Each structure stands twice: as C-alpha cells, then as structure tokens.
C-alpha cells in the first residue's frame, strides 16, 4: 500500500488530496500543515476554504483514508510519495523583490524532508515554482539527506481553478508529470502516473522532462491572464468607440483557433496566481538575459493595473469628480465567484482607490467575512514595478470609511453608487428597483463584471456603466478617463 503525504493544506493541497483519497481508497493520504487553525478547520464541519462540492468529498474520505495533521515530521517520514504544496508568494524584499518567487517555505519543507526521511521518497512539486527549482531541491536533499536514502523529484503542477476545484480535479483537461530522464526518474513518473490513472484517462496524462513541466505551469497562467488583459484592453477601445465588448468577444471567440473561453471583460484579474506567476516569469526572463520577452509579459500586468485604475477613475469622474463623503456600495470582494479567496482581488485596489478619494465604502460579499476585508484593506500594497510598500488607511480612517453589510440591499441603502466587483450569481437576480428606491439620486451602477441587464437598469432610472459597453449619454459627457 502506497502512503501519500502532502505538505501544505491550502487551496491546492486540501482539495487535491481529498480527490486522490476519494479515487484511490487503498492509498492512505495525509495532509500536513504547520498552521494549527488550518488543520483544525479541515478536521471540523466548517472547512477552511469554500469550494463547491468539497464538503461532500471530504466527508466521504475523512477518517477512512484521508486525514489532516500537524504532525508533519511523522507523516513525511512514513510516506512513499511526498507532495509539496506550500505557498510560493512573490518576494517582497531582497534580490528580485517584487518579481521573483519566494521559495522560503519550499526550501524549509525540502530541508525538513531531508532531516526526517529514513526511506526512499518521491518528492512531488505541486506548488508553482520557477523553472529549474527541481535542481535546487535535488541539491538540498542530496546534501542534507541521510546516507542511503534516495530521492526522485517530480514536477506535477496543479491546473485547478478556485471555484471549480473539485470538478477540475475529478475531470482534468490534463495531468502533467515531469521527471528526470533516467531509469529511476521514469519509474517515479510511472508510480505517480499510476495514482492518477485510477480516474484520469491515459491520453490526458502528459509526461515530460522536469523543466518543461515546471515552465508549462508558468506559461499556462501567463497565457490565461494574457487573454483577460487582451479583452480588457479591447474593452477600453469599445467604450471609446461605441462597440460592445461582449459582442466583440463573442465574434472573436467563434474563431475555432481562438475559442470562446476566458474572454469576459472585467475590472481585472485577481487571485493568488496570475500576477505572481507572470512576475516570476518576467524575473526568470530577465535573469536569462531576455529583456524583450520579460517586457512582453510584463505588459499583461500593466493592462490589469490600468483596468482597475480606469474603473476607479470612471466611478469618480461620473460622480461629478468627487466621491468624498458619498456612500458607495461594493458588491463582491472575492477575486471571483464561488470562492471566499481575496488574495490579489481587484476589489482591494478598487476600494483603496475609492477610499483614497474619501468615499465611504459599504462592502457585501456572500463568502468574505468582515475581518478578512479589514485585513485586506489594512495590508500595505506592494507596487511590483518599483518595489516599495504603499501606505494603507489608518485604523481610524478605516473605521470611519469602511463598513461590511449583511446583504446587497443593506450595502446599497442611502448609497450614491453601487460597484459590482465579483460575478456572484446572486447579483444577477437582485431586486434592483428596491435598491434604486433606497439610494440617493442620481443613482449609479458601475458593473465591473458585466452581470447586470443594462437596458433594464436604465429603465429603472440608474445611470449605468458596464465595462466595455456603449456608454450612457451621462457618462459620454464626462471627461475621458485613463
Ligand atoms: P495556501 O497559502 O492556501 O496554502 C499553503 C499552505 O502551506 C499553508 O496552509 C501554509 O501554512 C502551509 N505551509 C507553508 N510552509 C509549510 C511547511 N514548511 N510545512 C508545512 N506546511 C507549510 O496556498 P495555495 O493557494 O494552496 O497554493 C499552493 C501552491 O500551489 C502555490 O505555489 C500556488 O502558486 C500553487 N497553485 C495555486 C492554485 C490556486 O488556485 N490557489 C492553483 C494552482 C497552483
């Protein structure tokens, strides 16, 4: 019987291991983490992350062949296959600050594996790491491990998307496994392949060399984010010309070479991965002496920052160039629907932009707590291009200017404007007439996700702005925004 241990019980480690446990009842799967609250959450009735379908999978396996523990050393020592799914954020200081991946957690996990292992192990990179990380990990394990213990490093990047993690894991487009092209390397690849082969069709399991697997993950995220920045760049041109970005995206996406997915214009992409992974790619390109390639990918992030900035400017300029003292309802704070994750959510930048203009912001998100909102808005913002921390609001300013509402109607009561920043399904079917009646006039809606029926809301009486859509006469008269 194979025993699997996964280091890191986060958005990736938790769901991935739960699905492996579900599909491989004869494999014992343990997820370990240094964070006691996280592990306590996984062992409770209220899981530490919100992910549709996850409760059910965990309920079926926990206590059978799936467990969660803080006893990291024991479970790593016992395992045959060790997945490492720790966080790999962008470095905030030192060499490569603002771009390079911070591998502190990864390195400490690797050193711990070397310390505690008494038997051979397959060590699987599940975290997204810079290309060539496996080489560094091999060196750490070789120089620090006990004699006679052999390691094989595999790269098995995760392609799940938050909000659809369980579906993605049960039926992945592909599983990618990279390994050394030696007999031992091939055997390790085959062992991991056998695990996935219990439920993933063979033609969806791709095996490559280590560097291709590591780079493919960074490249895939860069391509996905590039599509969003491409359609967002076109959305600005649509507003300037009277074209409708939804119509343009539909027409463009009908080309089979382009395809329809990931072409929804928005206030910008967020999440813990896109920006971090592109920055990482940019840094790697710079390190390898490829400034033009670095510049090409950097532009994807610049357009994303531009889009968030453009949205805030649109709100402020439409409302007579001032939102000072005006209540603005913010609907949605998570970086996308069906997750409570707020890492790098565009809502943080939009709210900070509005707060900087002295607005009073009332936030409602079905999955994000008030504490989380406060933590996010209190966080110093890192300016990736010129590494430095931008100052957030003080606690007193925050208390005066930020409130968290129990529902959308409470958020909108007595507001001058509503900003929709996450595409939660419930925002499509709100009683907007009820909201309108409780708001100051003129009542504005700024839809950063294109979820509302613009014509219907204009009929109610709202001044409506929807990203990339033909502008209201009201907005046309306002100064151009950039
Ligand atoms: P996360 O921050 O939710 O989870 C990481 C966990 O690792 C934390 O609970 C932390 O306490 C734990 N940890 C850190 N160092 C540890 C150590 N030495 N020993 C034990 N536990 C330790 O991060 P998330 O979102 O799960 O991401 C993990 C990796 O997967 C990252 O590299 C990310 O880029 C990648 N990834 C993330 C995706 C996502 O949608 N969140 C999708 C695909 C890949």
UniProtKB/TrEMBL annotation:
NAD(+) binds at residues 8-13, 33, 38, 86-90, 127-128, 162, 273-276, 343. Belongs to the UDP-glucose/GDP-mannose dehydrogenase family. It comes from the Eukaryota. The gene is LOC101765389. The lineage of its organism: Eukaryota, Viridiplantae, Streptophyta, Embryophyta, Tracheophyta. Its EC number is 1.1.1.22. The keyword Oxidoreductase applies. Coiled coil: none annotated. The keyword NAD applies. The active site is at residue 273. Pathway: Nucleotide-sugar biosynthesis; UDP-alpha-D-glucuronate biosynthesis; UDP-alpha-D-glucuronate from UDP-alpha-D-glucose: step 1/1. Residues 329-454 form the UDP-glucose/GDP-mannose dehydrogenase C-terminal domain. It catalyses: UDP-alpha-D-glucose + 2 NAD(+) + H2O = UDP-alpha-D-glucuronate + 2 NADH + 3 H(+). It is an enzyme of class 1 (oxidoreductase). Pfam families: UDPG_MGDP_dh, UDPG_MGDP_dh_C, UDPG_MGDP_dh_N. This is UDP-glucose 6-dehydrogenase.
